[in-house]
Design the sequence.
């Protein structure tokens, strides 16, 4: 499971026509390059075993316009879905699946340290969905983008 689905503070906040290449590279390094490198390390043993699950946790930035402030982040989330599909097509015949799960909207909760509101996912349903995708029962779910959000964002 790879989860890096929040735009880093201060990264890629310029309009897309003025987006600095450094900000673009930073977003893609976190949200696209890291999952690729992790997958390259972990998928080989899965293939040798004939069974494995790759699961990326993304965000709905791929299909919800966020404006110019999150151009690089939105593009990296779309790329993450493409990466999962590529891995799925290569490894599916060998018992390894690759999928993306997109959690529902964040629900703010009070910060016990007084630093401002924190956000958490609706954990029970999300955890159950993740558990299924990692199970043997999900062997036919491959290359999918799962919207685990109770119908709040559909595609």
Sequence:
């Amino acid at each position: 499971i790879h989860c890096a689905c929040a735009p880093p503070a201060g990264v890629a906040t310029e309009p897309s026509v003025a987006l600095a290449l450094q900000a673009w590279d930073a977003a893609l390094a976190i949200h696209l390059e890291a999952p690729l490198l992790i997958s390259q390390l972990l998928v080989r043993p899965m293939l040798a075993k004939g069974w494995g699950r790759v699961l990326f946790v993304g965000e709905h930035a791929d299909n919800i316009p966020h404006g110019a402030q999150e151009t690089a982040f939105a593009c990296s989330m779309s790329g993450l879905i493409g990466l999962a599909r590529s891995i799925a097509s290569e490894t599916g015949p060998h018992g390894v699946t690759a999928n993306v799960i997109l959690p529902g909207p964040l629900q703010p909760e009070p910060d016990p340290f007084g630093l401002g509101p924190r956000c958490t996912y609706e954990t029970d349903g999300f955890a159950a969905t993740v558990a299924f995708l990692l199970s043997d029962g999900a062997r036919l779910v491959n290359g999918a983008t799962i919207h685990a959000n109770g119908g709040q964002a559909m595609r």
